[in-house]
Protein 1
Amino acid sequence: MQPPTLHSEHDAHLQPLEPQKTTVEDFLRFETLLADLSAAFINAPAEEIDGKIEEAQRLIGEFLGADLSMLVQFSEDGKRFVGTHTWAREEPHPLPTDFDLSPFSWVTKKILARESIHYARVDDLPDDAASEKALLKRNGSRSGHMYPLVVGNTVIGALLFSVLRAERHWPCHLVRRLDLAGQVFAAVLARKQAEEALQQALAEIKRLNGKLEAENIYLRHTVHLKHDHARIVRQSQAMQRVLAQVEQVAATDATVLLLGETGTGKELLAQAVHELSRRKHRTLIEINCAALAPGLIESELFGHEKGAYTGAFTRQGGRFELADGSTLFLDEVGELPLGLQAKLLRVIEEGRFQRLGSGQTIQVDARIVAATNRNLAQAVREGRFREDLYYRLNVFPITVPPLRERSEDIAPLVSMFVHTLGERMGKVVESIPRSSLEALARYTWPGNVRELRNVVERALILSQGPVLRLEAPQEEAAAPDGMTLEDVERQHILRVLEQTRWRVRGACGAAEILGLKPSTLESKMAKLGLQRPS
């Protein structure tokens, strides 16, 4: 059964009360009115409560034959009465809606003591209420009733009904029932305030959580890089040239394209470009274009509106919005779907884009640093990468040399990894045999720095003393005649997956052994058609 609403449908059976007498029928009609009002307030949304309160004031006031009703609440400092809900038979009503309580000590004392005030004539009020009588006479009040509004143990205000046309007298049993009306109004006000406070708190929590979540997702990776790489190893001339290029371009807003094999440290160099730029006070925003399904990359980059696609239950900003005023690092940009490359090109050129499901254009100022281990020029020739996007990204290319071309960096890299990883494991290494370092220098390192780090970590796990014995991985056998490079790659990855029982992630997983990111390995597996046996 739906609760009744506060409309004029009550007027038909709520005829005005006779001035000097009440009957059992009058009492029952008033009881019905109070019950209907209570029921109507139960399911009223917070935004409708104010209107329903004033409608209730009208219904009660007309039944009582009153001319004016005002609901007043204490100000925050407790020194003023502020009228928040009013009804008048004829507008405008005469009483002020905001007045200082200091001259009205009698009525304030009564209300705070939770005592109702009722008078058939203004002169019936005691001598202590001289200020109150003067105010009532000045505004034309002849008779009236005032009831405290109490929430919990706190008086929040009062409810007033006043007669302006003639002096009225109502029986005591009816006056007592009006106390119940005051309780109903107080309860619904308390619920409204609680709901509004809850909504404000939830909105603020959502805003702060969204902001912290958006920032911290990227800060986690940033902190991890700074911890693992307190400095960039640059003993070789090859890396010194790379860092010189980083310093040259960092101070500008030019787009940077980092080229190089997987595991060479392109992410760390992107961090260096950002930290040396004027945008360093903002968080570096990152996205791995190979780590997400093609259908999700657009939403991650540009955001989406609520209902933009199945599962989009809320509005969400993308990485470009987060990178406004900062740097956006597009890792493995060569994996970006062809259909999305045109939209990326527009953002890079014009700084404008639209969220999924929205027609509103958003303007951003984001510097682009992209990285790839693919030959983008070859991808352009094969039609897998847009030529215009390639030239827009290729403003300032930096080629990161593979580890086999900078063998001078192997020993300092080993030293750095032993120090950082040894501290985490609680192991102390006093020496590393020269023969071990020479063996590492002879190895070709297809997985580059990431593979070297994994070798050091495995050696630390197996080490039982202060001398760390490092063993270089075994070189892969030459490919049989007739096998393409893709065939060799598929065969090698399949062999490692079988050794790990198809475990890709985690310690001693295939990704770690191959020196690849788990997401990169999964992308390669999909491309090579490698699926875990059922």
Protein 2
Amino acid sequence: MKLVERVTGGTGIGGPLSLVAFVVVLLVVPQMLSDYDLFLATSALIVALMVQGIGMVTGRAGLIVLSQLGFAAVGAYVFLLMRIHLGGAGFLVAIVVAGLATAVVGLLVGLPALRLRGVNLGILTLVFGVTVTVVLTTKGFPGQSKAYFADRPDWLVADKSYFYLCGVVFALTSVAFALLDRTRLGASWLAARRSERATAALGRSVARTKTSAFALCALVAGLSGALFVGQQGTVTVESFAPVTSLIIFAVAIMMGARYPEGALLAGALNIFLPVFFDDLNISQNVPNLLFAAGAVIGLLHGRGAAEDIRHRLGRRFGRTGPELAVASADVAASGNGAGHGLAVRGPLTVGATRSDHAARDVPALEIRNLSMSYRNVRALSDVTVVVPQGCVTAVIGPNGAGKSTLIDCVTGFVRDYEGEVRVLGERIDLMPAHMRARHGIRRSFQQDRTIPELTVERYLRLAMPREASAQTSPEELEDMLAFFDGPHPSRMLASVDVGSRRVVEVVAAVAARPAVVLLDEPAAGLAAAESMRLAEQIAATPARFGPAVLLVEHDMELVQAACTEMTVLDFGEVIAAGEPREVLADTKVAKAYLGQEVMA
């Protein structure tokens, strides 16, 4: 049963039902269909395979790709090229090569799209699809001028045999995507869909994440193009019209093609519904309008038909998969549904941190003479902050003082600055954000940027380096979450409140074993008692878990309770630095940040 859940990508009843439904379609349906209907069913499987690519790249990675038929045309071209010019290459070999070659094309298309997202990315991919059709209209497919017909081998001549081949290819891609969902790459796709900045902060390359999604999307489209040629025997440019890509995209969104059953339904609708309307002498514009309306409903609803069915079945019959299980200790927790009250099992050292391998007199973080301007506005001016190992250092200041800009510069989200940033003595200024995260600097955000589709434990392990994740047991993660009053590791992040998700984000930063953790207003929205509890946890973090802490916070009581050092910014300049009591007694600080009242 565990294997079924892994393969179907679902928990509870939705995943196994999709597997049963597919077996029925693959084995039973061909016996019930006429030759014509079997031809249509095979076409539906080929479209379903193509739609799976959309479900992967859009449903998982959040990228809009409107060039599936353009990629399919590339696959068809390579397939014909292999069959004609390479000594009659094996039929299956030609299909595989067509898919792999199209994946390379998808990778190349994805490279210029790295800085684009949303509609702009969709337009770029649509332009690619149009370009492919223009080129093929001029150049033609291999063998087209000689009326070449792509014969199938003897064991695939029968239409039922070819239907089964298409079904096997669809099944294999479904299994591959389901297994990829369980990997760090699959989690990275979900992270990129949620927030590219948060993905980089987890140490994951956004560029690699997006291009891998493009390549896999193109790969399955190339396979479908090759299978289409094998079914038809010949092919024309009109079969890959760019406008059809828009229709297929709409059906994929409407049916929820992220899951296999959604892709199958999308393929069936795309093939059979136009035929049904044609039999009734109704214009083909009608099904297209229905597809468009369904896509809009799916976008507004937040999930397609298959996703909605899984959601409703899960609520009706209960979800028992590992992602949704809640341990009895969590159920018995006292309070707010976040798992507060779990017992701490004693001191925990998650593992060796980067600071364990550096001389103790080397600061965890050095920010030297950092200056940053937005056009004519000087956001930071010669800011110097040093965070010693084993310490909690605060950066405070009024709104607009430059605190958030400082964090963005240090973590690599703003790189056009002057000055130096060092982690354990190593300069990281030339590194992109995800590489800085890997070199010992992690951060939290003011807004929740966790990944709702993941469990707490899987999110934490995504944030951790691969080696650290392998060395950390589930019990250690549970103890760490308990220390920070976080939810149980088995909880889905979508099922816990926003405050608890922010706690999970802090734990993820600590669990990554960096040299320093940057916490951006972690107490926002907390009650006074919760803030003081958080102060105790932050103050104990360096000794208990290893990383130093740079804290940006407005709550002065929390800052005084948690920090040993403090730096005050005002209009992008450092106006005071030192021990909290001395700094807060400074008249310049009182005037700039605390009004005229001096806190003692």
Protein 3
Amino acid sequence: MNYLTYLFLAITIISIYYAFKYWRQSKRYTRERFAFALLSYIGTSFFVIIALIGYRQVILDFILLTFGITISPTYQTLIILCLMIFLIASYYIGYLIFRDWNGKISVIQHERQEKQIADNPKYFLLDSWEFLKDYSREEKRTEEYIPKVIQKIGFVSELIWEKQAKELLCLDDSKLYFRDDDWHESHNCWIGEHTFTNNKVVLICKYDELVDKDLLPILAYVQKREPLDKDKIEVIVALKDGDIDKNRTISGYKVRFVSENTLLNKFADFNNNFANYFHFIKDTVTYRKFDDLGLTIEDMYVTSDYKFKDDERQPNIEKFIYEWLENKGSLQQLAVLGEYGHGKSTLSQMLTYKLLLRCKEDKNARIPILLELRGKSPRTLTPEHLLATWGDKYGIKSEVLKQLLIAGRLLIIFEGFDEMDLAMDKKLRLQNFISLWEGLYYKNAKLLFTGRPNFFFDTEEQEICLRENVSGENNYGQTIYLEFFSNEQIKSSLTKLANQVVKEEIIILIDKNPKFEKLISRPSILRMAATIWKKKLSKHKNQINSALVIDEFIKSTHERQTNKGGHILYEVERVYFMEAISV
């Protein structure tokens, strides 16, 4: 009995260790592991309780021999009673942790949640049993639940040319109207109407240009169905290939020949649809100045370096992105990750501006759509709603954006995915990415995601959401990481941010203090430091850290607002209310 008691005590201690481990690392383990470890603890400790009652002296001898402790007989009963209370209390606490588990969700737990089955004590035993059964099952049901759809996402089904041509022409002329049953398969044409002129409209869909004699049978078919005067029938030939928009008369019919590319160029016109968007981005980058510096984003911008995961530093992230955009044969999508202050938002804005300038020179260049995800819930929006939310701001129809996206004429920049709504719930995070991929992932699309890597709880989740390492496919996501500024980039940035005296003082301190150099290698911290160096930081040269820089920058901001005059609040009041808001 002595050896058996020692064995159960050992198992109890091991079970406690693993139950504690699974609880503390709940972001890595499902609750079935925790349930099994806790059940093992309960089973063995129950035997220990019996031993405490029936074999009290055995337990006390064990404690004495193991730890060299002498226990007075007066306290033996009290100690045993305390141990029993501790064990019973730990059972209850363990169940509460199980019931309110906030770690990884298993396949079994997900199924219960989908059926809205409330947890109760019996599932504690069932989950422990399921964990044991997993050793004999090929499909592990106690492993983490990952929506299969995000691993199987393919391209969004593209419209066949017959339907796409109809949508393009209706966008070009909103008075055109075709019903779903207006399609005539035998002659590859739609027969609809023009709601303004009341003329019949014949839309003939072809991939390349036709000779006149090929049109004659179609026109004869239309005349037989619609015995109208020829001037009451409008004929449009929509061509998938080529670059054409011309009118001709054939057998007395006025025929317009127009190609997809011509229509798309019309929709992408910067003097029409995208004029407001271009001027908004231009003002953001080149006109609006930071009060503390009197400089614009364009004035301060220095191109960052990048690297692939566990790889060497590479120069000029912009060059890499341009090469990725121009590689039409590649189906890879791109994610740019960076920590706080790395300049992700600045990169997105400058990249958008530079690409828009390209678009003004090259009408076939991809138009960058800077779509901020801050505070948004893509899982609750259809792709059309997401595009409409963006397009309404600039007077651009979501249908136009969709057609340009299908044709490979857009770059969608999803900026700030780490600030999406309800980001703390893993299931909702996955659903957000599913919506983005499923709704906008056309074959010719280019998608770029930016955000912080610590948005994801682990590497596995990052690979799933950004489609990294999708085996056997060419349509996967590629991730690159923004690098901290190098010494040369810091000096280049200081040339733009600070006067010569401040620049020299900061550079001298960089050479003396590697920790300070690492601190201001973040572009945002560098800007703060340069802004308040002369007034606030130069006297703290040997004690500077990120907290001091941010604190002094906030103080300086409060002072500047107060000194503008005409203020409603004094500086101390601003500080008080801003601290309250922060809390």
